[in-house]
Amino acid sequence: MGYDIKEECKKARELIYESVRKELLGPGSEDIGSSIEHELITDEPIARYSTGILFPQKCENVQEDNSSIDMENSTRVDDEELKNKEETKKISHKGNNYNNSVDSIEDHIDEKIAMANELKPSSMGITFFAKGNIDKLCIRLKAAKYRKSTLKDCCIKYEGEDFFLGNELEDYLYRDGEFLKLKANLTSNVVKRFKDDTRYKEDEEYRKIISILYVLSRQCKDEVNKRNSYVREPLNFEEVIEIKLDKDYVIYPLKCIGGTEENIKVRADLEICVVRRKYGQDINSYTVVLVNKEEFDTYERDLKSIFQPEIRIKTEDNKGMFFIEDSSKKLVKNNLKLDDEEESLELLYRNKKNYATGHGVSTSQQVNESGDWIYINVYRVYCSSKL
Q1: pTM of model > 0.85
Q2: Beta strands 373-376 and 306-314: pairing type?
Q3: Distance CA 324, CA 321 (A)
């Protein structure tokens, strides 16, 4: 069997993509705990990850230090911007209690989409076209929150010798299978007392041990390391969320937890907004927006933010609905007027099939000729047919 350069290029590309995803989006950037799904990181989540975050509302571009805000150094907002925000507050959404006129629907959804384009976005969404009429829209959600770690969360993979037995480290460490875990708070000062500088210079295995000890010490908050570590908690959504489309604009409140009912780790306050626009020839467009409803006060942005959110919509869950590519909107009975730039883009990408438009995010898709299924994620994987 000969060398296949195409397959090697694909594997290299997938490896690069996965590495970048772990670093920018997560989870998996540190991979020191027992599970990537419940990863432990030694930085604040907002500092560690730079994409795929739904911030709490009213979150200004200020620096947070040790879960508190230096109010004297916080960014000032001018009076006009504050006035605009006060006007926005006057628009309230409780259940489906709103004026269902066309103008009202456009105002409501525009406000939600605007949150996706802020510097600290509180929402993300998707718009797609589909053929067929349905009385409910079924979606799948994934997301997570982070909580501050406790002593029992602190661990690291290590299958070497039990170097901590018979010395002062025995008061701090114990083995649990392939992991080293903490009995007590291990500080960097304890590690420095244990470290033998001469052996450290000569013994490579010993250097690995010291490195492991420092990683464990960074997971503990003390007088030297004043930052918390954080543990990821996936949110427990229903496998398929059904949203009844009894109106063209529907708000679906969604409160969920991470952990179990007996041991709740985190709570989330979310909202799903769905707008259906009817066209001709049995074609509808759907805009789905996921909103973080929590509000930022003066501290703990990390604990109120939503990380790694994903919306997935499948025809398998929505019987009788088939996705049509974005260019097929020319089939609907409305005259779309394009400016010069839009006409140029239409020409440039005329052979590119696109089934969805992201709001605040890019979309990924997997759709066969029958409009099989589609999903949205926080950044896109571009596939080349020539690879």
Answers
A1: no
A2: antiparallel
A3: 10
pLDDT in tens, 270-301: 999 999 999 888 899 999 999 999 998 777 89
* Phi, psi for 34 (deg, rounded to 5): -85, -20
Long-range contacts of range 218-225, CB-CB < 8 Å, 24 or more positions apart? 218/42, 219/40, 219/42, 219/149, 219/153, 219/154, 219/182, 220/151, 220/154, 220/182, 220/185, 220/186, 220/187, 221/185, 222/185, 222/187, 222/188, 223/187, 224/187, 224/188, 224/189, 225/187, 225/188
User: How distant is the alpha carbon of residue 198 from its chain centre?
Assistant: 45
To the nearest 5 percent, what fractions of the chain are helix, strand and coil? 30, 30, 45
Sign of CA dihedral 351, 357, 361, 367: negative
User: Could you read off the pLDDT of 27-52 as tens digits, one per residue?
Assistant: 999 988 778 999 999 999 999 999 99
Burial class for 251, CB neighbours closer than 10 Å (0-12, 13-18, 19+): buried
Residue holding tokens 């006057």? 90
Contacts of 221 (CB under 8 A, 6+ apart): 185, 227, 228, 229
Residue 289, beta-bridge partner list? 125, 273
Of 381, 386, 376, nearest to 141 by C-alpha is 376
Q: How far apart are the first and last CA of the chain?
A: 19
Phi and psi angles of residue 209, each rounded to the nearest 5 degrees, phi first: -65, -45
SS3 343: helix
Interval 178-197: pLDDT, tens: 999 999 999 989 999 999 99
List of residues 6+ apart from 341 with CB closer than 8 A:
none
Q: How long is the chain?
A: 387
C-alpha 363 chain-centroid distance: 13
Question: Concatenated DSSP letters for 223-240?
Answer: SS--PPPEEEEE----SS
Least Cα distance to 145 among 52, 253, 214, 19 occurs for 52
